[in-house]
């Protein structure tokens, strides 16, 4: 009987330790280089298990849920509430996955039709200071690093048993509670945490293409320069023209003038590029 009690306790502890912990960060951004008064704020999740962690936008998972319900209901895209989807727009279109076992980090982002994934190839070298303070309920310690063309200051805590943080940040002897760049253009602040049953499935329409980081940056620039030509090319450079009629994906379906379609897409991409002209990584 005593042995059964010990086994039950061991299984309970194992089950608790295997649970996924969600840390909710408030992300504050100034993504428009020409308009620093345009401040964007949204929440992002850092889900951590013993094997991996994933950082992604809260709005992304909410948008996925809205779309899934619409398709399950048989209504398709036409039944999706556009105002609701607009309210769930996000500036965090990427996700970052850290493989704990193999000590690898993967960044995923959509360019055109497909998801591009690369393994982060730059180490994050921290300089830990002796300075400490209190942020919320946590005692935190200061650390600094240069990464992606910005100087970052982080505050980490050893009160929580995780050596992780939002975005690509991590590698400190504790969880990052706050990290911001010296220009005050990007900051991540821990708001709360709780346990979840498992990692949610992130919808990833299109192909997932594994590339090097430098190739991802090149493809990103190609898309910004000529979005229609980019969309008409597959990953292997084989022409794959977009459908522009016969139940096409544009507003209302039906036949669409290719020239008008190109113009609309180029205008949209230029506008998006302007709104995101001050990215989190400058180099």
Structure description:
- The structure is a single chain.
- With 283 residues, the protein is an alpha+beta fold.
- The chain is 26% helix and 33% strand.
- The protein contains six helices and twelve strands.
- A twelve-stranded mixed sheet has the order 7-8-9-10-11-1-2-3-4-5-6-12.
- The longest helix has 18 residues, at 258-275.
H/E series, N to C?
HEEEHHEEEEEEEEEHHH
Assign an overall shape.
Answer: globular
Look at the structure and give the mean pLDDT: 82
How many whole angstroms does the radius of gyration measure? 22 Å
Specify the number of helices.
6
Instruction: Enumerate the spans where pLDDT stays under 50 for 5 or more consecutive residues.
Output: 1-17, 235-254
Please summarize the sheet with the most strands: 12 strands, mixed
Structural class: alpha+beta
Strand content: 25-35%
State the helical fraction: 25-40%
Give the CA-CA distance, first to last residue: 62 Å
How are strands sequenced across the largest beta sheet? 7-8-9-10-11-1-2-3-4-5-6-12
Count all strands and give the number: 12
Organism: Chryseobacterium sediminis
Region (Disordered): 237-283
Biased composition (Basic and acidic residues): 260-275
Biased composition (Gly residues): 244-255
Which terms summarize this structure?
283 residues, alpha+beta, twelve-stranded mixed beta sheet, 6 helices, globular, GLPGLI, signal, GLPGLI family protein
Blueprint (SSEs and pairs):
Layout: H1 2-17, E1 20-29, E2 40-48, E3 52-57, H2 58-72, H3 82-87, E4 95-99, E5 104-111, E6 114-119, E7 127-135, E8 138-147, E9 150-157, E10 175-181, E11 186-196, E12 208-210, H4 213-225, H5 227-231, H6 258-275
Parallel strand pairs: 6-12
Antiparallel strand pairs: 1-2, 1-11, 2-3, 3-4, 4-5, 5-6, 7-8, 8-9, 9-10, 10-11
């Amino acid at each position: 009987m005593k042995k059964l009690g010990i086994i039950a306790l061991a299984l309970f502890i194992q089950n608790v330790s295997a649970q996924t912990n969600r840390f909710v960060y408030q992300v504050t951004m100034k993504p428009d280089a020409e308009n620093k008064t345009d401040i964007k704020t949204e929440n992002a999740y850092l889900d951590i298990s013993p094997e991996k962690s994933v950082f992604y936008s809260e709005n992304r998972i909410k948008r996925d849920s809205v779309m899934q319900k619409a398709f399950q209901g048989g209504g398709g895209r036409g039944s999706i509430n556009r105002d609701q989807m607009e309210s769930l727009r996000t500036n965090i279109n990427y996700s970052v996955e850290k493989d704990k076992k193999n000590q690898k980090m993967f960044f995923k982002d959509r360019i055109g039709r497909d998801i591009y994934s690369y393994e982060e190839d730059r180490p994050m070298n921290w300089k830990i200071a002796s300075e400490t303070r209190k942020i919320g309920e946590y005692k935190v310690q200061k650390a600094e690093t240069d990464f992606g063309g910005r100087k970052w200051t982080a505050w980490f805590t050893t009160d929580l048993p995780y050596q992780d943080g939002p975005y690509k940040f991590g590698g400190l002897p504790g969880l990052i509670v706050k990290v911001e760049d010296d220009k005050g253009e990007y900051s991540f602040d821990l708001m709360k945490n709780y346990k979840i049953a498992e990692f949610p499935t992130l919808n990833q329409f299109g192909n997932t293409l594994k590339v090097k980081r430098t190739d991802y940056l090149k493809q990103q620039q190609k898309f910004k320069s000529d979005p229609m030509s980019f969309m008409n090319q597959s990953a292997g450079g084989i022409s794959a023209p977009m459908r522009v009629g016969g139940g096409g994906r544009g507003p209302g379906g039906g036949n669409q003038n290719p020239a008008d379609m190109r113009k609309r897409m180029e205008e949209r991409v230029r506008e998006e590029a302007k709104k995101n002209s001050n990215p989190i990584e400058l180099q």
